[in-house]
Amino acid sequence: MPESLWYCARDGQRLGPFGFAQLQQMTSDGAVRPHDLVLKEGDQGWRAASDVPGLMPAGPGPTP
Fold first, then answer.
1. 59: buried, middle or exposed (CB in 10 Å: 19+, 13-18, 0-12)?
2. What's residue 61's pLDDT?
3. In Å, what is the CA distance from 63 to each residue of 6, 34, 39, 44?
4. Inter-residue contact 8 to 38 (CB < 8 Å)
5. DSSP letter (8 states) at residue 1
């Protein structure tokens, strides 16, 4: 089964397509920020990157 394709919207431009792993790397590098909009090909609407499960890097663990 082929990997899903994703797009990112920044400054009024649609960027992509990207594979999910590539999009994850872009979030780790800071190229995609939590409030940037992303769209999975075939979905009906854009959503914030932070709303996509598993996309954003895990934050620091709880403070002891």
1. exposed
2. 44
3. 34, 22, 33, 38
4. yes
5. -
Q: Which tokens go with 50?
A: 């932070």
Closest CA to 33 of 62, 12, 8, 61: 8
Residues 8-63 pLDDT 10s: 998 889 999 999 999 999 999 999 999 999 999 999 999 999 999 999 987 654 45
The C-alpha torsion from 24 through 25 and 27 to 32, rounded to 10°, is -100
pTM score of the predicted model: 0.82
What sign results for the dihedral spanned by CA atoms 23, 41, 50, 13?
positive
pLDDT of residue 1: 55
**Residues 23, 28, 31, 35: what is their CA dihedral angle, to the nearest 10 degrees?**
80
